[in-house]
Design goal:
6-stranded mixed sheet, Rossmann fold, 5-stranded parallel sheet, single chain, 20 helices, alpha/beta
Length: 497
C-alpha cells in the first residue's frame, strides 16, 4: 500500500515515509492511493478474536511495509492490561434496545486519543528505521485538550524523539491543563498559546511548512502526533470494526445488518476513521457527526458551504471547540475521486477567505453518508442529567453532545437502525460540568475541579481513573505562555538549546 497527498504533488510514499513525515511536503495530508476492501468472510473471521488480533489484521492491510512481527510488537506493547485495565480494551455497553456506547476512555489518559497515541511511538520508531533517518524526530502537537496529554504520555522518554505540545490558554479544562503541565519526561515541553485551538493548529501547520528553511541545520526532522498524521488516524479504524464485531458476538446484530455510528467530533479525525471503516466494507448505514455550538461541520454537511468566519464559542465540551477541521480535507479528496485540484482550490479558499463551497454532486455524496447537527451547552447539561436519572449512566460533555444529536437524528429521520454512540472521554475529566448537571450548581460552589472528582465518585459509585488521582499534588513543570506569533521561535529555542 502506497500513499499520496490530498494536494496532488506527492505520490508513492510508503506507509513508513508517510508516518515519519506527518504532513505531506506539499501541505496536504496523506491518504491511501487505493481503497481497501474486506469481505464478509474476513469480517466473520474476526468475531471470536481479541482486540489485539483485530488490530493486527486491520493495520496489516494499511501498513504493508511493516512486518507482521513489528505490528504485533507495536500492538502488544500498547494494548495491554497496564494501559487499558479491565476485561475489554474498547467495551460496548448497551444503553437501551437500540443504542449502545463504545467506551474509548479506559486508557492511561482517559480519552479516545490513547488508542492511537500509545501505538504511534512504536510505529514512528519503525518508520524512522525503515527510512534510514539518522536525525532525532521532533513531534509537534496542537491540542484542544486530550491529544496533548495522550501524546505526551505516549512519547515521554522515547529515545530519539522530542515532543512539543501547544494548547490554547483558557481553552481546555482545568484537569486537562494540569494533566499536561505536570507531565514528566526528559524530552517533553508543553506551551500555552494565547488564543484558540484554530490559531494554535494553524501555527503548527506553518511550522511544518517553514521550519526546513528557518532551521536548515536542525538536529531533528519533524513529524506530528495530531490526526493529520496517518499513523494517528489508522489505529482508530480498528475500534469501529471491533464495536460491530462485539455486537455481532453478543447477538445484538445479525450481519449484514447495518448500524449507525454517532461521533462527537471537532477536527473530523475520529469520524473520518469511521468513514474509512465503512469504505472498507463495514456495514454502516449512517455516520452521525455531532458538534457543539461551534457547528461549522454541521452547517457544511447540511449545505456544502464551509465558513469559519463566525463567532468562536468556548463551550463545556472544549475538545470540540474547533472551527477548522483539518481532516475534512481527506474526506473531500475521497468523495471527489482523488481530484486534488478541486481539494487544493477549496483549501486555498479556506486559508485566504475563511470559507469555501463544494459542488452539488460532492455535497450529495457527503449527505449520503453523513448526517449532522449540534447541541448547545444547556442541551448538553440536560442530556447528562437525564441519562444519569434514566439509565444510571454518566456521560462526559462530549459524549452527551453525541447523545443529544442522536435524539435529533432519530426524531427527524425515524431511522431505528441499531446505533453506536462513540464515548470519547471519561466524565471525570470534566467533573465540574458533570457534577453540575447531576447534582445542580450548588454542589459545585466553592469546590475546585479536584475536589469535585471525589464528589462525582461518591455520587455515582465510579472510581476515579488512576491518571487523575492525586493530580492536584503533582508538580507543575511547564509554565511558558506565548502569543501565536512566538510559536516558531519557541520551537527553534527548544531544538537548539
Amino acid at each position: 500500500m502506497l500513499y499520496e497527498s490530498t494536494r496532488g504533488k506527492i505520490h508513492s510514499f510508503s506507509a513508513a515515509r508517510a508516518i515519519k513525515s506527518g504532513m505531506a511536503p506539499d501541505g496536504g495530508l496523506f491518504v491511501p492511493s487505493v481503497p481497501i476492501h474486506i469481505t464478509k468472510q474476513q469480517l466473520n473471521g474476526l468475531v471470536g478474536v481479541s482486540y489485539q488480533e483485530r488490530a493486527l489484521y486491520i493495520l496489516n492491510l494499511f501498513l504493508t511495509d511493516f512486518t507482521p512481527a513489528q505490528l504485533k510488537e507495536s500492538i502488544t506493547g500498547s494494548y495491554h492490561q497496564k494501559n487499558f485495565p479491565g476485561p475489554k480494551i474498547a467495551p460496548v455497553k448497551k444503553l437501551n434496545a437500540g443504542l449502545y456506547l463504545l467506551e474509548l476512555w479506559h486508557g492511561p489518559t482517559g480519552a479516545f486519543k490513547d488508542f492511537a497515541l500509545q501505538i504511534l511511538p512504536y510505529l514512528l520508531h519503525y518508520a524512522v528505521t525503515k527510512t534510514g533517518e539518522d536525525k532525532k524526530i521532533a513531534i509537534l502537537v496542537a491540542t484542544s485538550g486530550d491529544t496533548g496529554k495522550a501524546a505526551l504520555e505516549g512519547f515521554k522518554d522515547v529515545e530519539g524523539t522530542k515532543i512539543i505540545v501547544f494548547y490554547p490558554a483558557e481553552g481546555v479544562s482545568k484537569i486537562q491543563e494540569l494533566q499536561m503541565v505536570t507531565q514528566e519526561g526528559s524530552n517533553v515541553r508543553v506551551v500555552a498559546v494565547r488564543g484558540n485551538f484554530d490559531q494554535t493548529q494553524r501555527g503548527v501547520k506553518e511550522i511544518f511548512k517553514e521550519m526546513p528553511y528557518l532551521l536548515p541545520e536542525s538536529p531533528c526532522c519533524f513529524s506530528s502526533a495530531n490526526s493529520i498524521n496517518w499513523g494517528r488516524l489508522v489505529p482508530q479504524i480498528v475500534y469501529y470494526f471491533s464495536a460491530y464485531l462485539d455486537l455481532q458476538k453478543q447477538g445484538e446484530i445479525t450481519p449484514p445488518e447495518e448500524i449507525n455510528f454517532v461521533v462527537p467530533t471537532g477536527n473530523f479525525g475520529n469520524i473520518l476513521a469511521a468513514f474509512y471503516a465503512r469504505q472498507m466494507g463495514l456495514p454502516v448505514r449512517k455516520l452521525i457527526c455531532a458538534t457543539n455550538q461551534n457547528n461549522v461541520l454541521a452547517d457544511f454537511i447540511r449545505t456544502g458551504f464551509y465558513d469559519r468566519n463566525r463567532i468562536f464559542y468556548q463551550t463545556i465540551s472544549p475538545s470540540m471547540d474547533i472551527l477548522v477541521a483539518s481532516n475534512l480535507e481527506r474526506l473531500l479528496y475521497e468523495v471527489t475521486g482523488h481530484k486534488a485540484v478541486k481539494v487544493e482550490k477549496w483549501m486555498t479558499d479556506l486559508q485566504e477567505k475563511g470559507r469555501f463551497q463544494v459542488d452539488n454532486d460532492v455535497l450529495e455524496k457527503v449527505k449520503a453518508i453523513f448526517w449532522s447537527d449540534f447541541a448547545t451547552d444547556e442541551e448538553t447539561l440536560t442530556t447528562i442529567k437525564d441519562t444519569y436519572r434514566q439509565y444510571d449512566y454518566v456521560l462526559d460533555p462530549h459524549t452527551a453532545v453525541g447523545k443529544n444529536v442522536y435524539a435529533k437524528y432519530f426524531s427527524q429521520t425515524g431511522d431505528a437502525s441499531k446505533t453506536v454512540l462513540v464515548s470519547t472521554a471519561s466524565p471525570f475529566k470534566f467533573c465540574p460540568h458533570v457534577v453540575k448537571a447531576i447534582l445542580g450548581e450548588k454542589a459545585t460552589q466553592n469546590k475546585s475541579a479536584f475536589e469535585l472528582l471525589d464528589v462525582l465518585a461518591r455520587t455515582t459509585g465510579l472510581e476515579i481513573p488512576p491518571g487523575l488521582k492525586n493530580l492536584a499534588q503533582k508538580t507543575v513543570r511547564h509554565t511558558l505562555v506565548i502569543d501565536p506569533a512566538g510559536m516558531k521561535q519557541t520551537v527553534i529555542n527548544s531544538l537548539t538549546s
